[in-house]
Amino acid sequence: MRIDLHTHSTASDGTDSPADLVRKAAAVGLDVIALTDHDTTRGHAEALAALPEGLTLVTGAELSCRLDGVSMHMLAYLFDPEEPRLLAERELVRDDRVPRAQGMIAKLNGLGVPVTWEQVRRIAGDGSVGRPHIATALVELGVVPTVNDAFTLDWLADGGRAHMQKHETDPFEALRLVKGAGGVAVFAHPAASKRGRTVPEAAIAELAEAGLDGIEVDHMDHDPDTRARLRGLAQELGLLVTGSSDYHGSRKTCVLGEFMTDPEVYGEITRRATGAFPVPGAGGAR
């Protein structure tokens, strides 16, 4: 089985619609795909309606968290999307994205960059506005050559000249909420130091004690030495090890299925989940 447990659509900051995403996943030979848009499940219905035969969808979301001033992301799988406490927290995080983006635009204007809210809103479309949309605007304006080049201290990285914090959930609270909604929690790209400061391994151990299920080890932002170190840490802490593409369509260079999750680990994730279940495709809409 070929299993990719971390992808994004136009429901957040990807460039493929949920329907196009699942069709592309089937076309490249994936058997299982998780749709994990940032702090939203809005793309699930469209993905399910278009799900091709032979492809299974794992519903989920990537939750924005912050621990001791360090931004981190929590992949939540197979939770009940209508559970009121987790739903309220996702909405709080998502609603804070607009004033945050507007504040970052104001900072960029102060740095002499003529980006506008209208431009960023056009790029985001129906998705929840985020830094990748602002980064795309910087590419359009010729300020940086690629989206990744916008995520530096000169521009949008944590602590960068145009960065602003948004509301982010304490990860221990996120674990409580995900578990309360019957879901499974995996720490996304925990050692992606190119994105900024990372959470120390001692904190990962504390999260494991609090109920963290796994860590995303095989990821494009982890070099081979980092992956080996994280794999050892996961074994020491009794955590599941996942792998995934973190696919965003044309906005990033990663490709579907670039890294994948072992079928035994996927099976354990589905066994632990009680809020929702993987959905096998039945042909989908054409």
From TrEMBL:
<dbReference type="InterPro" id="IPR003141">
    <property type="entry name" value="Pol/His_phosphatase_N"/>
</dbReference>
<dbReference type="Pfam" id="PF02811">
    <property type="entry name" value="PHP"/>
</dbReference>
<protein>
    <submittedName>
        <fullName>PHP domain-containing protein</fullName>
    </submittedName>
</protein>
<dbReference type="InterPro" id="IPR004013">
    <property type="entry name" value="PHP_dom"/>
</dbReference>
<dbReference type="InterPro" id="IPR016195">
    <property type="entry name" value="Pol/histidinol_Pase-like"/>
</dbReference>
<dbReference type="InterPro" id="IPR052018">
    <property type="entry name" value="PHP_domain"/>
</dbReference>
<feature type="domain" description="Polymerase/histidinol phosphatase N-terminal">
    <location>
        <begin position="3"/>
        <end position="67"/>
    </location>
</feature>
<dbReference type="GO" id="GO:0004534">
    <property type="term" value="F:5'-3' RNA exonuclease activity"/>
</dbReference>
<dbReference type="GO" id="GO:0035312">
    <property type="term" value="F:5'-3' DNA exonuclease activity"/>
</dbReference>
